[in-house]
Structures are given as C-alpha cells and as structure tokens.
Amino acid sequence: MTSITCKCGEIELSIEQNIRGTRVQCYCESCRGFVKTMGAPDHLLNHEQGIECFHTTPNDIKINKGAELLAAKSISQKGAMRWHCDKCQTPLADTRRNSSIPFIAVLLPRESHLPNAPEFGTKIKVIHQYHARPNATNQGRNNQGLHNMIWGVLSRWAIKLITGKVRKSDWHNGKDWRVAATVMTKSERDKLYKRAKTL
Ligand SMILES: [Zn+2]
Ligand SMILES: [Zn+2]
After folding, report:
1. 198 belongs to a structural domain
2. Which one of 8, 23, 26, 133 has the fewest beta carbons within 10 angstroms of its own beta carbon?
3. Three-class HEC string of 144-190
4. Cβ(21)–Cβ(124) below 8 Å
5. Which domain holds residue 49?
6. Per-residue model confidence as pLDDT tens digits over 20-70
7. Does the residue 194 lie in any domain?
8. Which CATH number do you get for residue 31?
9. How many domains does the chain have?
C-alpha cells in the first residue's frame, strides 16, 4: 500500500499495490495553472512543469484521514473537478463533474514521480506534451496518449459496472460526489492561465 498526503498532512489517501491504472504525465495549462494557483508547484510539478498522476477508479483510492477537509474547484463550468485540501490547498485528485463516470486521477507528489514509486507502473503516457517547458521534445498536437487514456477508462468502467463497485467509494455518497465543486470566476480563470504561462 502506498499513501499520499497533502502538504499539511491532514489528508491522507491510500492506494493498494498492483491495482489497475495508468500512469500519466500531463502538460496542459489547466493542470499547471491550477497547481501554481493553489501554491503547490514545488510539491507537484516536474522539471518541465508537468504533473504526474495515476488514473484509476475511485473505489481503488481510499481516504484514510481528513475526508472532511476535502474541497473541490472547477476552472470552468464544464471543467474537471479538482479536489484539494481546504486547509493547505494542495491539489490531490481530479475527477469528472459527472459522478456517474467512475474515473479519478490522483496527483503524485514529486518524490513519487518516475523513476520513484514503480508501484504506479513504469511506463508513462504523456499528454499535451507540446506545452512542456522549457524544452518541449515533441512539438505538434499529439493526442494519442489522451485517446489511450479514454479507452483505458472505459474498459475499467465496464469491469467495475459488471462487478457492481462503481458507486462504492470514499469519494461518493451513493448519489453524488461527497463535495460540490466551486466554479472559478472569469478573473480567477484569467489569472490561472497567466500563471500557467510563466516559468
Ligand atoms: Zn492539507
Ligand atoms: Zn492536464
């Protein structure tokens, strides 16, 4: 079992070993801008200013402690739900707003980025690499990683539906996600994308 905590340590998540999932690096400006806005770039961003996360289903991620401190924001009305600690603001996970889609991306702290923490897999899918900084190695819009990720989610979803585990998780109260996301205002959003562009 591996645990992940926010910066203040009040929230702790745990992930069983050998669960199915996909290790992903994302360089999109939303992920980067959000991490910077929440004051956690040193904790979460790699040296090319990307995040590393593990995509799986919510029932595979347990909230060991601090569940009452979880809060969520969305950058835009239809944007992903970005879960974080309400006390120290550390981003912890992303889900879709629609709680019937059993998908979660848990953000891995920098000390768990590859080559560390091989329990999350040793292969990585890179998405939105054209935004990587400072030395983007793969120019052009290559979204193959994103497509693979979506298929990965669908196949995991189908498996969980069959086994009836979809709604049973620490993130979901049986009807909806355990917290509602606050949507950022236009000026908050503009500031976030400005921050994403600075090194
Ligand atoms: Zn915290
Ligand atoms: Zn992203």
Report:
1. no
2. 8
3. HHHHHHHHHHHHHHHHHHHHCCCCCCCCECCCCECCCEEECCHHHHH
4. no
5. 2-144+152-188
6. 899 999 999 999 999 999 999 999 999 999 999 999 999 899 999 999 999
7. no
8. 2.170.150.70
9. 1
Q: What is the pTM of this model?
A: 0.86
Q: Which ligand is nearest to the CA of 30?
A: 2
Distance (angstroms) between ligand 1 centre and the Cα of 110 equals 16
Of 154 and 186, which is predicted with more confidence? 186
Beta carbons of 61 and 104 less than 8 angstroms apart: yes
The ligand that comes nearest to the alpha carbon of residue 80 is: 2
**Average pLDDT of span 104-126:** 92
Å from CA of 130 to ligand 2 middle? 12
Spacing, Cα 56 to ligand 2 middle (Å): 16
Residue 137 has pLDDT above 50, yes or no: no
> Is residue 42 one of the residues assigned to a domain?
yes
Q: Which ligand is nearest to the CA of 51?
A: 2
